[in-house]
Amino acid sequence: MAVYTDVAPVELEAFLSGYDIGSLTSFHGIAEGVENSNFLVQTTTGSYILTLYEKRVRREDLPFFVGLMQHLAARGLSCPEPVAARSGAILAEVAGRPAAMVTFLPGVSVRRPTAHHCAELGRGLAQLHLAGADFPLKRANALSVAGWRPLFEAAGAAADTVAPGLSGAVAAELAVLEANWPQDLPSGVIHADLFPDNAFFLDDQLSGIIDFYFACTDFLAYDVAICLNAWCFEADGAYNVTKGRALLAGYEAVRPLSEDEKAALPRLARGAALRFLLTRLVDWLNVPEGALVRPKDPLEYLKKLRFHQAVERAQDYGLAA
Amino acid sequence: MAVYTDVAPVELEAFLSGYDIGSLTSFHGIAEGVENSNFLVQTTTGSYILTLYEKRVRREDLPFFVGLMQHLAARGLSCPEPVAARSGAILAEVAGRPAAMVTFLPGVSVRRPTAHHCAELGRGLAQLHLAGADFPLKRANALSVAGWRPLFEAAGAAADTVAPGLSGAVAAELAVLEANWPQDLPSGVIHADLFPDNAFFLDDQLSGIIDFYFACTDFLAYDVAICLNAWCFEADGAYNVTKGRALLAGYEAVRPLSEDEKAALPRLARGAALRFLLTRLVDWLNVPEGALVRPKDPLEYLKKLRFHQAVERAQDYGLAA
């Protein structure tokens, strides 16, 4: 839930006068996204989302993010497509913030994905990877293996206040993954945060992928591992292998995984679990007094990590042999 | 800014299955309204607003509010129109909250109204008063003269922490108004909160009036006085008589004020200023630690009150002689 910056209608109208998208008919802040302020803008020509980038998004990353959406949309992926101003620019400034306007995507996210949704998502993820293959810009993944130790140090001994022994468990896992993180897997553009709230469905078909503000250049199979974590566990912490099989089969129908990627999948899944465990832990330990938004539970990812630690082969995730 | 209650898409779909409004295509929490949770719902037939009533709205008042919108819309006023379920009901329950779905109104609110906007608003307010004349339900105005002393007592001596002498100024004004509040003016349905953010415009024409959750039965001219306070002062606290003249002329073009109403206008304007001064004062003194939303400044209404105290005749507001 967000909308951090207030935009006056008159300011919006001045901004829109630089675009060929008709005149403003409606304008509402929408309570979505935790990093940015988002507004649903309706004009005589259609619906758009105006995003104002708040301070957690680095300005130097914006050309990567909006360029990527433009690139993916041009290759037929259903994602928000940046709208160029009459000047040709796709980045602007509104209310003192960097801003971009993108097309509005219809669709509704699912809270409890079925195996069918997982299959759709797997196909969509592989399409994203293929569509991104020739995207020329690069952005390092600040939340891959090299970024985890600084997060762990930021949490420090306070981790044990969240759960006894958590600090030691994370330290041990971190040591294992730092020593054994895969090398030389196929790389490219990954979404890196493709949780169910970032995927839209219409009539149970994937209708769009949104929120590219963690996208970066990393192992494609790491994105698969993130999705297994985000889509294939039940609320009680159990891994649902039917959903995993559906997601992986959907993915492989579009982009088959190499033998190296398959072999690395259990480690990548551990890494993905540790990444969300660590960022949630830091958020959990840094909630402002009286905040309205309750942070997500880091221990959900400790449970997932425990599951992955016990996995011996990628087939345990439901991967076709 | 709001959205207090989270609604799962699957829950929304189950709710919508009771309506003949097509299938869901989009669903976004919108950051508006301070009392309720609001969602923009798009279906294959159009756009709607789903409102979930949070605890500050009393359930027993809901038939008045939704019945009023239905009544006004049926008489041609451009306001949100409740959508009946297939069962005929216009009140429902979603996520454990009372809820209603209304039509979506296009339009954009203005931050700095011009005299032209004030004229439009005056006409719309008078149309609302005429359209509400035969609405059969009644709702007492809890925020008229009888409600002010309890608010003042809730603020208590802490008022002086907001501005030195504020407590004494309010006590004196309260005594004057309690002894001299008008009697027997024409009464009916009033909006009671028609601030610029509750009025939509398209091409500078009033396109809709929203947020009827303070509506009640009271003097019609008190609603005019509220609007003079809300629309006709500049940011520096000065009364803009050109805007006042436009608002009053717009109103009188549709519903002329009686001589009694004109004579009472200065007292009604003082009362309206005191009402918003008091509610803002109570909110100001009761901000939860760390709250994201900064309450509105009560002293803005002290300045307005000082202006009204110096007004001798209704003509000073710009009323035609």
From TrEMBL, chains A, B:
InterPro entries: Aminoglycoside_PTrfase, Homoserine_kinase_II, Kinase-like_dom_sf, Pseudomonas-type_ThrB. Pathway: Amino-acid biosynthesis; L-threonine biosynthesis; L-threonine from L-aspartate: step 4/5. Keywords: Amino-acid biosynthesis, ATP-binding, Kinase, Nucleotide-binding, Threonine biosynthesis, Transferase. It comes from the Bacteria. Pfam families: APH. GO terms for molecular function: ATP binding; homoserine kinase activity. The keyword Transmembrane does not apply. Residues 28-257 form the Aminoglycoside phosphotransferase domain. It catalyses: L-homoserine + ATP = O-phospho-L-homoserine + ADP + H(+). Its EC number is 2.7.1.39. Gene3D superfamilies: 3.90.1200.10, Phosphorylase Kinase, domain 1. GO terms for biological process: threonine biosynthetic process. Belongs to the pseudomonas-type ThrB family. This is Homoserine kinase. The lineage of its organism: Bacteria, Pseudomonadati, Pseudomonadota, Alphaproteobacteria, Hyphomicrobiales.
